[in-house]
Amino acid sequence: MSENNITQNDILYMETKAIYVQLIRSLPHLASGPLDLDYIAEVAATTKDAQLVRKGIKVRDMLKELEDAGVIDHRDHYKLLVEEITQELTHLGNLKEKVIQETDSLEGVYNTILDHNNYLRSQLESYKAYLQNVRIQSGGDKNLKVGIGVEIEGGGRSKRGNNNNNKALVKGPVKFSHNNLERDGVITESTVPENRRSNIFFTISSPLPGTFVIAMHFKGRDKPILEMDLKLDDLLEKQQDSVELLDLEYVRLNVSKTLALLNKTFINRNK
């Protein structure tokens, strides 16, 4: 039906249908059986809700006007109008169910994200507490500044004694195969050809509390292919900033799983 062919009766018919849909959705018990449009209008007009009363009175007059115009007939219980109202209610009901399902699904996703966020926060707090303890424990002599590969001397201690302390601080190296790290999700991307991955392994050591050295090796070679120094607080900062990957040139590591690996290998063992 084109816009130019819409009559006043058509507009009245659509408005009547729309009001009945609103009334039935406001008073859902009226849809429990076959729709009785006269009864629905009467119930709405006698409720305590002023808005429903106005709509009930209005739709009752509109129903009579449509019948006078010959558009509907009370003798067949307004069959055509009832059918269209029923179809509209079914359509809206299906939409409501879909919205409810989508809402439930989104709530599930939201709760999962919240749980994961709480887990990450608890992990972060654990690492921060550990890092603070490390800083306190390693800050006994304020005159000593220690870096990776630097031999500690001075402070009234003998060189031999300091070497022993250094050795006591160093933990590892701990060896991990490329395949195992990839299987555990620590390695997320690798440019190493698959036929050579079985010959690749990594070592991780902790020369100082909160400091780690990760080295990539090829079986049969004395020197590592690459080495990288990792600081615990740097990794924690990356995790807090939602940086997911750590680039080691040949492989990329998952930051959260790398932290978990370091925690399991070096930190939890000291507790």
Overview of the molecule:
It is a single chain. With 271 residues, the chain is of the alpha+beta class. It folds into two domains: 136 residues, no CATH class; 98 residues, no CATH class. Helices cover 54% and strands 15% of the residues. Strand 4 and strand 5 form a beta hairpin. Helix 1 crosses helix 4. The longest helix is centred in the middle third of the chain and has 59 residues. The chain is rod-shaped. 18% of the residues are buried. About 11% of the residues have low confidence. It comes from Rhizopus stolonifer (Rhizopus nigricans). One of its GO terms (biological process) is negative regulation of Ras protein signal transduction. One of its GO terms (molecular function) is GTPase activator activity.
Chain-wise SSE layout:
Layout: H1 8-26, H2 37-45, H3 50-68, H4 79-137, H5 159-169, E1 171-177, H6 178-183, E2 187-190, E3 200-208, E4 211-218, E5 226-231, H7 232-240, E6 245-247, E7 251-254, H8 255-267
Antiparallel strand pairs: 1-3, 2-7, 3-4, 4-5, 6-7
Helix pairs in contact: 1-3, 1-4, 2-3, 4-7
